[in-house]
Amino acid sequence: EVQLQASGGGLVQPGGSLRLSCTYSGITYSSTVMNWFRRPPGKDLDWVSTIYTDGRTTYEDSVKGRFTISRDNAKNTVYLQMNNLKPEDTAVYYCMHGVHRGQGTQVTVSS
User: Fold this and answer.
1) Which residues of 62-90 are buried (b: 16+ CB within 10 A; e: fewer)?
2) Range list of β-strands (E), 26-104
3) What is the rounded CA–CA span in Å between residue 70 and residue 73?
4) Is the backbone of residue 26 left (phi > 0), alpha (psi -120 to 50) or beta?
5) Interatomic CA distance for residues 25 and 4, integer angstroms
6) Residues 81-95: tens digit of each pLDDT
7) What angle do CA 86, 89, 94 make, to 5 degrees?
C-alpha cells in the first residue's frame, strides 16, 4: 500500500521560507517520480513540481526560481524548499505518486 505524508506547512509572512517534506512508503523504487501539487482556497488542484528518477526537475512557471524540489532516497523523502513566498502560494500542499495522494499540509502566506 502506497502511503505519503506531507509535513512542514505553517503560517509565514510574505518573503519568508518554508521547507515541506513528504515521507513515502510502499513504493518499489525509492528514486521514483514524485510530484508536489497544491490546492488554493476554493480552487482546483494545481501541479507545482516534479522530480524524476534521473534527478531532473520541473516547475510550474509561477514558482520557478523560488521553489526547489529535492529528494533523499535513503530516507524515502521528497522535499519542497519554498523561498520568497507570496500570498498566492497559500494552499494545501500535497505530494503525489501517480494517483496516490497523501494528507496535505497547509501553507498560509500572510502578513
Assistant:
1) ebeeebbbebeeeebbbbbebeebeeebb
2) 34-39, 46-51, 57-59, 67-72, 77-82, 91-97, 100-101
3) 10
4) left
5) 7
6) 999 999 999 999 999
7) 150
Cβ-contact 47, 60 below 8 angstroms? yes
Q: Are 96 and 49 in contact (CB under 8 A)?
A: no
State the pairing for strand pair 77-82/67-72.
antiparallel
pLDDT digits (tens, 9 = 90+) for 14-73: 999 999 999 998 887 766 899 999 999 999 999 999 999 999 999 999 999 999 999 998
The pairing of strands 77-82 and 18-25 is: antiparallel
